């Protein structure tokens, strides 16, 4: 059952949801950027400078959060996102390495 913030528990992260989230190139870009950062790094959603409206950025991060790829925490008037690296490696070993190795579009 997802927590109050919409993060699924590790055992509830489903491959179909993860793959659907990763199907979008902007969401893959977010995951690649976070995967390149040291474990535990959290960034504001706006720091990714996605070339879309603020509402669309919010939508993309909701998809990533609900799929279990990122954890988001509110900090004042912004949200910080971090990669759920350990959880994803436990559920789908090697998946993040594949995404991280994809060339930038």
UniProtKB/TrEMBL annotation:
<keyword id="KW-0805">Transcription regulation</keyword>
<protein>
    <submittedName>
        <fullName>ArsR family transcriptional regulator</fullName>
    </submittedName>
</protein>
<dbReference type="Pfam" id="PF12840">
    <property type="entry name" value="HTH_20"/>
</dbReference>
<keyword id="KW-0804">Transcription</keyword>
<dbReference type="GO" id="GO:0003677">
    <property type="term" value="F:DNA binding"/>
</dbReference>
<dbReference type="InterPro" id="IPR036390">
    <property type="entry name" value="WH_DNA-bd_sf"/>
</dbReference>
<dbReference type="InterPro" id="IPR011991">
    <property type="entry name" value="ArsR-like_HTH"/>
</dbReference>
<keyword id="KW-0238">DNA-binding</keyword>
<dbReference type="InterPro" id="IPR036388">
    <property type="entry name" value="WH-like_DNA-bd_sf"/>
</dbReference>
<feature type="domain" description="HTH arsR-type">
    <location>
        <begin position="7"/>
        <end position="105"/>
    </location>
</feature>
<dbReference type="GO" id="GO:0003700">
    <property type="term" value="F:DNA-binding transcription factor activity"/>
</dbReference>
<dbReference type="InterPro" id="IPR051081">
    <property type="entry name" value="HTH_MetalResp_TranReg"/>
</dbReference>
<dbReference type="InterPro" id="IPR001845">
    <property type="entry name" value="HTH_ArsR_DNA-bd_dom"/>
</dbReference>
């Amino acid at each position: 059952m997802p927590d109050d913030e919409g993060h699924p528990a590790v055992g509830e992260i489903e491959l179909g949801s993860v793959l659907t989230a990763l199907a979008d190139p902007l969401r893959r870009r977010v995951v690649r950027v976070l995967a390149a950062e040291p474990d535990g790094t959290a960034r504001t959603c706006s720091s990714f400078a996605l070339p879309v409206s603020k509402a669309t950025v919010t939508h993309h991060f909701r998809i990533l959060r609900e799929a279990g790829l990122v954890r988001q925490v509110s900090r004042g008037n912004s949200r910080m996102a971090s990669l759920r690296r350990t959880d994803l490696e436990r559920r789908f070993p090697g998946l993040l390495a594949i995404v991280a190795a994809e060339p930038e579009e």
